[in-house]
Each structure stands twice: as structure tokens, then as C-alpha cells.
Write a structure and sequence with these properties.
The chain has about 240 residues and is α+β, with helices and mostly antiparallel strands. It is about 25% helix and about 20% strand. The chain contains 6 helices and 7 strands. Strands 1, 2, 3, 4, 5, 6 and 7 form a 7-stranded antiparallel beta sheet that branches. A hairpin with a 7-residue loop joins strand 4 and strand 5.
């Protein structure tokens, strides 16, 4: 992806007031519960957690790449953290190229975009900051990329008095179809109806954490024109 996406903050030392022993009930806890048992300070929200889920969250938070949300056939409940896309851009996809295949279009460059000149047509992308609501209470931010078809639908949801703004409610997101026939489906879910999905909404404290970690346009990697000229030469040589 042209964005620094991981799919294909300096950290401060944590100082505890006193050592804390975590009570364990190995006989009664399931293996998953034992693995995910957090290490906490009494009366304080945990900043150190145990388990693979916690490891993935820390890895994502320290990565220079935005974590892209993957729409699946099974519905996922998401929360828009902002009412507008944090980035809108065009991208080129180079089929059959080894290594990186997607590049931000430089059509607005004074000298134009070499990949456009080479005949490669860009697609338009719009990226939103979202959080995916799950049973594990994860507080990681994801980047939800949509195309021109879905952006109009989201804008209609946003301006609709019963549904908008986007960040007001939760949304169930899923997809149907394959390849070019894939369609993304969004269904509004009010917080009071989350119990039907066996879920509980984010607290105000959760939302503060999520919004502090929202992505900005700076996360998107923009190539230089000389880089795209080299790739344009590759395209021409391959013909």
C-alpha cells in the first residue's frame, strides 16, 4: 500500500508503587483466560498485559505503519473515531511487480505523475480512523480504506439526521461477493442494541485513548517523482 500499512513513540518505563501479586485460579480458568490474564495495579487501568493479543497490540502501536482494517464476510462491529476521512488520495497498482506494488499518485505534481504518463490508471482511496469492537476490549486504531462507491454511501450516512454523524453510532461491516463483484455492507447499530451482538460499547475513557492514537495524513508514504520515473521505466521495459 502507499500508506505505511502492515498487512501484506518512544516508550516510557513503567514504575509501580509496589510489587503486585496476581491471584491465579489455574484449576478454574480456561487456557485462554490464563494466557490473557492482565497484570494490573489495584485501582489502576492496566498498562501491561499478558498474552498474544496484548503482544500484537503493542507491536502495532510501535509500528511506523498504519494497521489497515480488513472487511470480512462475517460482520464486525466498528466505531468511527472521526466524522470525516483523515486522508484522501489516489494510488497506482503495478501488477506483476516484485516488492512494493502500490504507490501514491503524483498527479498534482507540477511536472505530473510518471505512472499516469505510462498509462497506469490510479484508483481513489479515502481512509477513516476506526476502532473494531471485540470481546477482548482491544483499544487499537485501524485505518478503514474505502473507494469511490462507498465514500458516497458514508457521506449520506453522515448527513442523515437519523444516522449521522458517522461517529454517533456503531456500525456492522461485512462483505459479499468475490473479486470485482465484492460489495461492502454497513448497518447502523445503536449502542443500546450492542447486547444483541453480545458486546458492550466503549467507555468515555476508552474513546479518549483511541482518539489520541488516531492516524494523520503523515502516516502515508509519498514517493518522489524520480522513484516513480524508475518504476515507469520498468513498466515500459516489460511491454
Amino acid at each position: 500500500m502507499p500508506n505505511k500499512y502492515d498487512d501484506d513513540f518512544d516508550t516510557d518505563e513503567v514504575e509501580f508503587d509496589s510489587p503486585v501479586k496476581v491471584a491465579t485460579k489455574k484449576e478454574s480458568l480456561t487456557q485462554k483466560e490464563r494466557v490473557e490474564t492482565p497484570v494490573t495495579n489495584p485501582g489502576k487501568k492496566s498498562v501491561i498485559n499478558r498474552g498474544w493479543g496484548a503482544a500484537q497490540k503493542v507491536q502495532e502501536s510501535t509500528s511506523a505503519f498504519a494497521q489497515r482494517f480488513k472487511v470480512t464476510e462475517d460482520p464486525q462491529i466498528i466505531k468511527f473515531l472521526e466524522d470525516e476521512p483523515y486522508a484522501s488520495f489516489r494510488t497506482h497498482w503495478i501488477d506483476g511487480r516484485a516488492g512494493q506494488k502500490s504507490f501514491v499518485c503524483l498527479a498534482d505534481h507540477p511536472e505530473g505523475c510518471p505512472l499516469c504518463d505510462a498509462g497506469n490508471r490510479p484508483s481513489t482511496k479515502f481512509a477513516f480512523n476506526i476502532a473494531v469492537l471485540g470481546e477482548d476490549g482491544d483499544l487499537s486504531v485501524k485505518s478503514f480504506e474505502v473507494g469511490v462507491r462507498l465514500i458516497d454511501q458514508l457521506k449520506n450516512f453522515h448527513t442523515n439526521p437519523q444516522q449521522g454523524p458517522l461517529s454517533k453510532h456503531y456500525w456492522a461491516v461485512s462483505k459479499t461477493g468475490k473479486g470485482a463483484q465484492t460489495q461492502t455492507i454497513l448497518q447502523m447499530v445503536r449502542e443500546r442494541d450492542l447486547s444483541e451482538w453480545s458486546m458492550v460499547g466503549y467507555t468515555d475513557e476508552d474513546m479518549s485513548v483511541l482518539k489520541r492514537n488516531c492516524y494523520t495524513p503523515e502516516i502515508i508514504s509519498i514517493p518522489t517523482r524520480s522513484e516513480l520515473l524508475d518504476i515507469s521505466s520498468e513498466i515500459n521495459d516489460a511491454r
